[in-house]
Amino acid sequence: MQSGSFQHPYIPNTPADREEMLKVIGVSSAEELFRDIPQGYSAPSLDIPQALPEMDLLRELQALGDENRHADQGPFFLGAGAYRHYIPAVVQAIVNRGEFLTAYTPYQPEVSQGTLQAAYEFQTMVGQILDMDVANAGMYDGASSFAEGALMACRIKRRYKVAYLDTVSPDYIDVLKTYTLPQGIEIYPVTANSTNLKRETACIVAQSPNFYGYIEPLENLIETAHSLDALAVIATDPFASVLFRPPGSYGADIVTAEGQPLGVPVSFGGPYVGLFTCKKEYVRQLPGRIVGKTVDSNIRTAYVLTLQTREQHIRREKATSNICTSTALIGLMTTVYSAILGKEGIKEVAQLCYQKSHYAASLIQQIPGYSLPLDGVFFQEFVVECPRSPSEINETLASKGIIGGLDISDRIHNGMLICVTEVNTRVEIEALVQALSDIGK
Questions:
Q1: What pLDDT is recorded for position 324?
Q2: Domain residue spans in the chain?
Q3: Which site among 5, 62, 78, 198 is 20 to 30 Å from 213 CA-CA?
Q4: Are the C-beta atoms of residues 185 and 160 closer than 8 Å to each other?
């Protein structure tokens, strides 16, 4: 397309068309449509430059993209909710098949048996990994699953206060606030050592491994919740759940997780898929949808959308969620990945993450000026207290081609959250250690 062929190639309305529409609704300009927005809250002028020819635009975008470093371009030790794992090529080969890639959103009763079976297998896999009775067919991501778990507990208990452990990811807490504020639900922090709950608390929400990567003993926390007739909502990591006791094994009522580690690329933060499970007795309050397995009139296996409690399918006041985006394709990635690895393969990946991260931690804590300020058992992430600002250290690491950990010095003095997974080689780990040692001198 040549520059100047027409002003708005993707908007069919001409300036004359727009003037006519504005005249019909009684305003003189598009800006008048936004006059009800209070001063100070309207968007500033974007000062968008003139359109470029398509070839020049692609060249400019490519140059901007080349300034990024992606996770596979060298040693990478960043985690905090999105994790780099090796994804076998067959995962993409299957999900890119037209039958799956172009399938209609699987909310409708006429959806294909293949798509329904994929969702059913996904549910089965999630239930097995998290050791829970019931799993739905997927949520937006781990953070929204976590928040939906709190809302579900409030519906079950008909109470409107939520206590959260102070070691939960701050990003998860932000999402929790977004979900609960419009509904008038009060959320407040507690610590593992001080779990005094307010009256009318519906649930305690926690994370294991927590934001810092450590496995907290949550049995007493769950007992405290149950003794006060409250529920326990636990967010976990799918790999940690196959290496350590999954929350379902020690009494959690609702267990959620981020499905991204199971075969989904980091991909700048999405799209991902949230894992959501609960005890069977609470299934009627489960958000999202559930695919069931039955037989047809000829006694052949058949899959069917068994439960859909969103507001497009039932009366709005009885809806459990307004989740509208289908994550079936991303869920299929996790299903194919898990099927390829199998139980032993998933466990081996988890063991490699554990062993390699502990190898890295053992070397780092020997460097003068560096220490591990937190006690306890960690899975694949750990906190390092650095001799200098982590932001400065990360800049130096980047100049050496190494992506360091997350700067959490707002929570722990000069704290850096480092993640090591099965893809990090011994050479990469020792390169990080050497670089940190050089920086600390």
A1: 66
A2: 89-337, 342-440
A3: 198
A4: yes
HSE at residue 107, side-chain half, CA atoms within 13 A, is 15
Q: What backbone torsions phi and psi does residue 103 show, to the nearest 5 degrees?
A: -65, 145
The model's confidence at residue 115, banded by pLDDT at 50, 70 and 90, is confident
Q: Rounded distance, CA 171 to CA 287, Å?
A: 21
Instruction: Collapse the DSSP code of 18 into the 3-class scheme (helix H, G, I; strand E, B; otherwise coil) and give the result.
Output: helix
How open is the CA angle 23-24-25, to the nearest 5 degrees?
Answer: 95
- Going by their DSSP bridges, the two strands 201-208 and 231-236 should be labelled as parallel
Q: Which CATH class is domain 89-337?
A: alpha beta
pLDDT digits (tens, 9 = 90+) for 216-265: 889 988 999 999 999 999 999 999 999 999 998 989 999 999 999 999 99
Helix, strand, coil share of the chain (percent; to 5): 40, 15, 45
How many residues make up the chain in this entry? 441
Q: How far apart are CA 212 and CA 151, in angstroms?
A: 25
Non-local (6+) Cβ contacts of 128 within 8 A are none
Q: Average pLDDT of 270-279?
A: 95
Q: Which long-range contacts (CB under 8 A, 24 or more apart) does 48-57 make?
A: 51/3, 51/7, 52/3, 53/1, 53/2, 53/3, 54/1
The sign of the torsion formed by the CA atoms of 214, 215, 220, 224 equals: positive
Residue 172 or residue 51, greater confidence: 172
Task: Read off the pLDDT of each residue in 197-208 and give the average, rounded to a whole number.
Answer: 94
Q: Is the CATH code 3.90.1150.10 the one for domain 342-440? A: yes
pLDDT of residue 3: 39
Quick check: 303 and 116 in contact, CB under 8 A?
A: yes
> How far, in Å, CA of 136 to CA of 338, rounded?
17
Q: Identify the CA nearest to 418 among candidates 426, 410, 429, 434.
A: 429
User: Which of 237 and 103 is assigned the larger pLDDT?
Assistant: 237
DSSP character at residue 414: T
